[in-house]
């Protein structure tokens, strides 16, 4: 991928082509802790990461360009292998447990897809009980657009919710 082909509004782009380097203009490179390279959805070896579902993580060091005051979106491909609570992406001090993360995308043990945004005044959870399939690649997209948050699975809108207030500023890493 050539930088001249990358949209300059992207603040992070992880193609996982053998590493966790951010190929946006911002170089928000990830640090692997336990996750292992594996084959991606196209059958290309060393182009995705497999997580053990317990303590594997990719950590991206805190950076002001990962603070989102306005509209934003996240698009991630996942391959769930068990129905259990799993964080896909979170900006906050830890992957799980009680913390005020500005945003998070996860799946739950009761087959919910979850998008969470924490504002200065409230915690907003957007749930969808549509479920997720096991042993199949799926695309999760989470969007904050003005005062709305939306969650999509494979391009289909699962749910939307009105939110109010500015996101909390969290000087914490981004966790995948």
Features:
7-stranded antiparallel β-sheet; 176 residues; 4-stranded antiparallel β-sheet; 13 strands; mainly beta
How helical, in percent, are the residues? under 10%
How many helices does DSSP assign?
0
- Arrangement of strands in the largest sheet: 1-4-13-6-7-8-9
Please outline the major beta sheet: 7 strands, antiparallel
* Distance between the amino and carboxyl termini: 22 Å
Beta fraction of the residues? 35-45%
SSE order, one letter for each helix or strand = EEEEEEEEEEEEE
Number of strands: 13
How would you describe what is shown here?
This protein has about 180 residues and is mainly β. The protein has no helices and 13 strands. The protein has a 7-stranded antiparallel beta sheet, with no helix packed on it. It has a 4-stranded antiparallel beta sheet with strand order 5-10-11-12, with no helix packed on it. Strands 2-3 form a two-stranded antiparallel sheet. β7 and β8 (about 115-120) form a beta hairpin. The chain starts with about 30 loop residues before the first strand and ends with a strand. The model has no long low-confidence stretch (mean pLDDT about 85).
Could you give a quick summary of the protein structure above?
With 176 residues, the chain is mainly beta. The protein contains no helices and 13 strands.
């Amino acid at each position: 991928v050539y930088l001249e082909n990358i949209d300059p509004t992207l603040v992070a782009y992880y193609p996982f082509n053998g590493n966790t380097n951010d190929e946006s203009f911002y170089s928000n490179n990830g640090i692997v802790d336990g996750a292992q390279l594996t084959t991606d959805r196209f059958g290309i070896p060393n182009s995705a990461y497999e997580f053990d579902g317990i303590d594997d993580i990719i950590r991206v060091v805190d950076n002001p360009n990962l603070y989102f005051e306005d509209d934003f979106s996240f698009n991630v491909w996942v391959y769930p292998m068990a129905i259990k609570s799993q964080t896909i992406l979170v900006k906050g001090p830890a992957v799980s447990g009680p913390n005020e993360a500005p945003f998070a995308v996860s799946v739950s043990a009761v087959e919910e897809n979850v998008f969470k945004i924490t504002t200065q005044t409230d915690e907003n959870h957007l749930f969808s009980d549509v479920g997720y399939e096991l042993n199949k690649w799926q695309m999760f997209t989470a969007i904050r657009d003005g005062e709305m948050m939306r969650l999509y699975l494979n391009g289909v809108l699962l749910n939307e919710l009105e939110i109010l207030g500015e996101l909390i500023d969290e000087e914490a890493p981004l966790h995948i």
